[in-house]
Amino acid sequence: MKDLGKINSNQIYGLWKNLTVCMIAVIATIVFSHILPYYLSPVIALLVASGMYMYIYNARFAKLKTCIVPSIAILYCIVIYAFFTIILNLMCIWGLFEMPHEFIFFTDPFIPSLILNPVSCVVLIVIYTQRRKLKVCQECRSNRSFGGIRGAAGVLNSEAHIQLKNFIIMSGVLSLAVWAYYQFSYINVNLNGRDSYIFTWLTVIGVALDWIYFSWRYYNLYLDLQESHEIITPSELRDMTAKTYLRYYVVCGNYIYLNEHATDAYGGRGEVFDTPFFTRQTMNGMLDGDVKSVIEKMTGVKNGDLRFFYGRKSPYDDKHSLLRYFYFLDGDISEYPHLDVPGEWVSFDKVKYLYSNMPNKMAELAVYDITRLATIILTEKIFDENGFRKNGIKSYNPTFNLLEVRKSKLDFQDDKWIEISLFNSDTPLYKLKKWWRNRNQKRRNKIG
Q1: Is residue 223 within 8 Å of residue 216, measured between CB atoms?
Q2: What pLDDT digit, counting tens, does each position of 362-412 carry?
């Protein structure tokens, strides 16, 4: 089971590579704006942003899955800096207000760090606080439904958050240093060596030192994960046998069979509630007949109704698949007092209570699966396929039970209702945003 939490060693390299590209982009924006004529500063920033955009686009659709939110954040910082500088200069040209020469790229000296650092700090704070609403983050959460995010696989997300926090702190500290020097020590005559050091090279050195720290950090992180056998090298990945993990939820009426003394696959939660029906097959995919024979042997009950829930391939390698199934039993739980594995029948009302109030008492995979199940069923009850509410009562709060799950014809494999739950008529300016998304989608289809 712990294989689900392992990561490819190239993904540690991917974290470092993404960070390196971000650092190079910031350094290039500052240095070339200092070396080349000042009026080219916004052009330089937009050219750097174009290069970052191409890198992010290729990284997003590459097989190597690493978080690109820090890269997107730096891209936004550079683009907003460029347009903010242009707008600021246009307003000065139009005579709307006057600004010191250090903020005008048509005059000498122009100091980019006075704008870039504080703009970056503000943009990064906004992205960090709103990161869960980013489309790329929503897609990532959907793909993570292969398994939980604990174990080594959690490094990819936690390190991305650490990178964002680090960018915020670094841009904030550099903003304070540069602006403090500008306000209290800078003499508006000409740039001397000390001025150039503070306004240009202090930012470059700060970024370079930060890169050295993270390079050391990721090297040691790789060694730690390798020592704990949580790293899969590319050669091991090529030689690895394909594995299919099967996870069953055995249901009778509104009861589900759980083991309250299960051990969470990723540790750290002690004994938890989880389905005891979990197995691994050394093959890539399985026939439905084989899937049913496995659960019949595990439960000791035949003639149950096997229903596919959903499945995913691992986002970290192509060798693992995790499939979830429902196995519905007819009649009453009194007819099945004991199945062939340790556990007990638990009311779904109790499961919902644990899920809402004590999620740490449940295995992480169980929490993730219930989240998907509830999101799809409840979203379909509230919204239509176009994302509009079926009734105008916003306080409408439907519920569901396992009897409805058995009768449901919904495709739990499809992410349609997940997407509607994230973007629907409750979203501000929904119609305008939906029109814009549809327009961009049609344009991408034409290009493709």
Answers
A1: no
A2: 988 899 899 999 999 999 999 999 999 988 777 788 999 999 999 999 999
Residue 195 neighbours by CB under 8 Å, 6+ apart: 186
- Range list of H helices, 94-201: 113-129, 135-143, 154-184, 193-196
Report the mean per-residue pLDDT for the chain. Answer: 85
Q: Give strand pairing partners of 344.
A: 258
Question: Strand 243-252 and strand 278-281: pairing?
Answer: antiparallel
**What b/e readout covers 120-141, taking b as 16+ CB neighbours within 10 angstroms?**
bbebbeebbeebeeeeebbebb
pLDDT one-digit tens code per residue, 42-78: 999 999 999 999 998 887 766 556 788 899 999 999 9
Which of 378, 400, 375 has its CA nearest to residue 389? 378
pTM: 0.77
Low pLDDT (below 70) residues in the chain: 1-6, 61-65, 138-154, 233-242, 265-269, 282-289, 314-319, 444-448
Q: Report how far residue 339's alpha carbon sits from residue 161's, in angstroms, rounded to the nearest whole number.
A: 44
Asked if 294 contacts 272 with a C-beta cutoff of 8 angstroms, the reply is no
Q: What are the CA-CA distances from residue 80 to residues 48, 74, 88, 122, 350 (Å)?
A: 12, 10, 12, 11, 50
Query: What share of the chain has pLDDT > 70, as a percent?
Result: 85
Specify the residue for token string 């509230």.
382
Residue 109: partners with Cβ closer than 8 Å, 6 or more residues away: 38, 101, 102, 190, 191
